[in-house]
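In full, the data.
>
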Amino acid sequence: MSLPSPVLGLILAGGQARRMGGGDKPLLRLGGRTLMERVVERLGPQCGAGLALSANGDPARFAGFPGPILPDPLPGQPGPLAGILAGLEYAAAHGVARVVSVSGDAPFLPADLVARLLAVASETGIALAASGERQHFTIALWPTALRDALRDHLERGERRVGAFIARHGAAVASWPVEPMDPFLNINTPEDLAAANVLGSQIRI
């Protein structure tokens, strides 16, 4: 069995989940377990430097998470890039060179996510996950060497993940969407119902 890669796994807890009626999407239940538990189970074994959670507000609601809970390092809740910055700065402070970010509402992450992103990435480059033709900007490998550039990007008022990636370039690793999209994320009650059907079919 291969050893887990020396990267920090960063789970992005997400925004205000308005389409789900509010609250924290990672705490929704799928097949009797939270989305967060499923993401931790799939990502954790791939990350030799452990896991961290990007989340603002009271950290007590994520009690039991097996790692630090990192608030945004900048005010105003500027979106997922701020969470990624928190992860990069935490990793750099602990001697970890790379971070893999994932969405906290993507319960079917592939077991080879980190290995395949590392395989396509350059030493100092970003690597994105894709399913079919769709790229997933927040499911990606980030070198901590980009943390100052990312902070500067945010402090200039830029919040778009795609704009930052376009400026720095990225390699892409792609997974098939059949029999199911491994990066399916839960945005609506209908998505959750569909995920429950898929989960029962593949016995998650």
The chain has a mean pLDDT of 91. Residues 8-202 form a domain with the Spore Coat Polysaccharide Biosynthesis Protein SpsA; Chain A fold (CATH 3.90.550.10). The first strand starts at residue 8 and ends at 12. DSSP finds six helices and nine strands in the chain.
